[in-house]
Amino acid sequence: MKAKYAYSNLIIGLLLLIGFLMSIRSFAQPDYDFRDPVLLSGTDRQVGAVYLFSNVKTGVDARMTINFISPGIVVTELDGASGYPEALQPTLVADPFTNGYLEMYIEFLEAGTFNLMIQTEVPVTCIDVDGWLDNDGLGNPLHEFDQVDLGGGYVDYQLSGGELSVVQEGNWFKGKNVGGIDYPGRDTAAKQAMFTSVNGNISSCVIRVGVDNQSTISANRLRSIYFKKFIYPNSLLSKSPLLSFQGLQKDNLIELKWILGKENSLKSVVIERGNKSSEFISIGEVSINLKAEQVNYNFLDDENFTGDAYYRLRMISVNGKSTYSNIIVFHAGNITNAFRIYPSIVQTTATIQVKSETNATAIFQLVDYSGRIVVQKNVQVHEGTNNIVVHNLGSVYPGNYVVLVKMNNKVYNQKIFKQ
Questions:
Q1: Same domain for 211 and 135
Q2: Are 247 and 301 in contact (CB under 8 A)?
Q3: Are 148 and 197 in contact (CB under 8 A)?
Q4: What does the DSSP 8-state code read for residue 397?
Q5: Residue 231: inside a domain
Q6: Which of the listed residues 291, 323, 378, 401 has the most CB atoms within 10 Å of its CB?
Q7: Using one digit for the tens of pLDDT, what is the confidence trace for 357-415?
Q8: Residue 102 sits in the same domain as residue 69
Q9: Both 329 and 359 in a single domain?
Q10: How far apart are CA 132 and CA 135, in angstroms?
């Protein structure tokens, strides 16, 4: 009985392990599975060669054409066996002092036909974009690079600690290795050497895998293109694009002003207003041009209001994700209290509401109970009632503090608690 019981437990354990591994495999599945290409026409691994990848997705085939191969670049494998079977994995040999690439044109087709098929969303992740700082023992480097043209869309990658320079040139997203560190094989462990491009409503894309070999010897490079999204630490998309948000009340008009960082992935900003801090409606929307240099925006609300008016910004990224700004509030009629700080319990930001008779520079100070100035900032105020957000208070130790605002030969103060 004991042996039978142990054997039964072993079988159950194995079944659970298999189920667990299958669940991991299912979770890790890419959006598109590129494997087992069939040569339709042309010479294998040469310009003009056309390949068919069947069932890259349910009901979808893919046709891939080699558009271009730079002089000094040799494609030894179109889809290498090492790494990930579902990824598209060319192997390149780059001659000494060669900066070149393999360009692939990919079309998505209705399965079993050659009819183009629009795809809702296509993610393309270039992995293991690595290099060598000293490829030949003489101090001459090698840097891999990839380029993706999805007709637009957005890009994501690791900002802090990343080893790539990622830029957008027209519809091309280009990621080039600058770290000079080689990661053996083809692997997704080094997120710092990867980037992801995404776009939707497309039926084709162009991908380049390249090598900038500045050394005196040839180099064999294992490249990999994975058709799925990845989550990056310190992601470009997770970085808040909002640098400041403030408002000015004058003659019953509310002017909202905000500043965005130049590196942002926003599609638009929706201005929302409410008469409570939990109920908002949209009153306007500003489109964001990712290629523009403009970072300062404003919106004028000329609708008369009674009671309190709350405002916030809903920032919509190119991937459809929404994030919200802090809330600023204005009061109808004359304000009897010319100064207040809210909220009274602060985490990372605080909003100063102050009424000024002129345009001026005010000094904001956060003072602990021993009289030590913990934070000091200069803030610009304008004639009227100002709402100004003070950021970066997250590093201040929890406890009781006094906020001082000095302007126009006056000093305002209020107690707050830092959580």
A1: yes
A2: no
A3: yes
A4: P
A5: no
A6: 401
A7: 888 888 888 888 777 888 888 888 888 888 887 777 777 888 888 888 888 878 888 88
A8: yes
A9: no
A10: 5
Does 258 share its domain with 353?
no
- Cα–Cα distance for residue pair 192/130, rounded to 1 Å: 9
Q: Mark whether 385 and 318 lie in a shared domain.
A: no
Helix-strand-coil percent breakdown of the chain, rounded to 5?
5, 55, 40
Cβ-count burial of 392 within 10 angstroms (0-12 exposed, 13-18 middle, 19+ buried)?
exposed
Q: Indicate the number of domains in the chain.
A: 3
What's the pLDDT at 358? 84
Give the residue carrying structure tokens 């709350």: 310
What is the per-residue pLDDT across 204-245, written as a single tens digit (0 to 9) for each?
A: 999 999 999 999 999 999 999 999 999 888 776 666 677 778
- Output the six-digit token pair for 367: 């003072």
Structure-block tokens of residue 45? 């691994």
What does residue 276 show for φ and ψ, rounded to 5 degrees? -135, 160
Domain boundary among the residues 164, 194, 226 is at 226
**65 and 199 fall within a common domain:** yes
Tell me if the bond preceding 233 is cis, omega within 30° of 0.
no
CA 147, 152, 157, 159 torsion-angle sign: positive
Residue 4, in any domain of the structure: no
**Calpha distance 227→205 (Å, rounded):** 12
- Assess whether pLDDT exceeds 90 at residue 131: yes
- Hey, what long-range contacts does 361-365 have (CB within 8 A, 24 or more apart)? 361/407, 362/405, 362/406, 362/407, 363/404, 363/405, 363/406, 363/407, 364/390, 364/403, 364/404, 364/405, 365/403, 365/404, 365/405, 365/406
Q: Encoding tokens for residue 204?
A: 């084709």
Q: Which of 100-109, 232-241, 329-338, 345-354 has the highest mean pLDDT?
A: 100-109
Domain assignment present for residue 24? The answer is no
> Domain range for residue 47?
30-226
Helix, strand, or coil (residue 193): helix
How many other CB atoms are found less than 10 A from the CB of residue 45? Answer: 18
Q: Which amino acid is at 297?
A: Y
Placement of tokens 């004359």 in the chain: 334
Q: Token pair for residue 399?
A: 């406890």
